[in-house]
């Protein structure tokens, strides 16, 4: 039985190394997907657990907002359009994870045709604390055709 457990642990370790992803990277990818799902559901209680108290967003409209402002908008009935996030790079520096990539935002018309969704670039900053990884900063900008 002990041999089986050690074999299984070894297999999981080798699989993680072979895929090139650390457990922290796997967790950040999971959290990126999870917090987007929570935003889609309007689950402010769970979002406040994922966002750090210092969470700040530089949104695509060029406005800097905090959790208090985001929650107030959501509680007033605002529904954020869906977003499909494509992570291109995760960089770790000690207890900081920087996630960069592209995202497609559903237009205000709530059109479901993804070919018409709005392309943006994003950067999300996560900090690992005693509570685990928490989203601390976010910046998102619409890609403008030249």
Walkthrough of the structure:
It comes from Maribacter cobaltidurans. InterPro entries: DUF4440 (IPR027843), NTF2-like_dom_sf (IPR032710). It holds the Pfam family DUF4440. This is Nuclear transport factor 2 family protein. The protein has 146 residues and is of the alpha+beta class. It has one domain: Nuclear Transport Factor 2, Chain: A. Helix content is 36%, strand content 37%. It has helices at residues 2-19, 23-41, 44-50, 67-75, and strands at 51-58, 64-65, 83-93, 96-105, 118-129, 132-142. Strands 2-1-6-5-4-3 form a six-stranded mixed β-sheet. Helix 2 runs antiparallel to helix 3 (44-50). It is globular.
Average pLDDT, rounded to a whole number, is 88
How many strands, what sense, and barrel or not for the largest sheet? 6 strands, mixed
Uncertain segments of ≥5 residues (pLDDT<50)?
A: none
Straight-line distance between termini = 63 Å
- How many independent structural domains? 1
What is the number of helices? 4
Radius of gyration: 18 Å
Organism: Maribacter cobaltidurans
Protein name: Nuclear transport factor 2 family protein
Pfam families: DUF4440
InterPro entries: DUF4440, NTF2-like_dom_sf
Give the key terms.
alpha+beta; DUF4440; Nuclear Transport Factor 2, Chain: A; globular; 6 strands; 6-stranded mixed beta sheet; 146 residues
Give a short synopsis of this structure:
The protein has 146 residues and is of the alpha+beta class.
């Amino acid at each position: 039985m002990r041999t089986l457990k050690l074999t299984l642990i070894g297999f999981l370790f080798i699989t993680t190394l072979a895929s090139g992803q650390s457990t922290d990277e796997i967790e950040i990818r999971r959290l990126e997907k999870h917090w987007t799902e929570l935003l889609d559901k309007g689950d402010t209680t769970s979002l406040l657990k994922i966002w750090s108290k210092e969470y700040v967003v530089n949104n695509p409209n060029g406005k800097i907002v905090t959790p208090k402002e985001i929650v107030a908008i959501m509680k007033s009935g605002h529904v954020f359009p869906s977003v499909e996030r494509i992570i291109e790079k995760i960089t770790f520096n000690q207890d900081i994870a920087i996630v960069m990539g592209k995202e497609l935002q559903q237009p205000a018309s709530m059109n479901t045709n993804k070919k018409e969704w709005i392309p943006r670039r994003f950067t999300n900053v996560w900090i690992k604390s005693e509570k685990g990884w928490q989203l601390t900063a976010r910046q998102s900008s619409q890609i403008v055709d030249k």
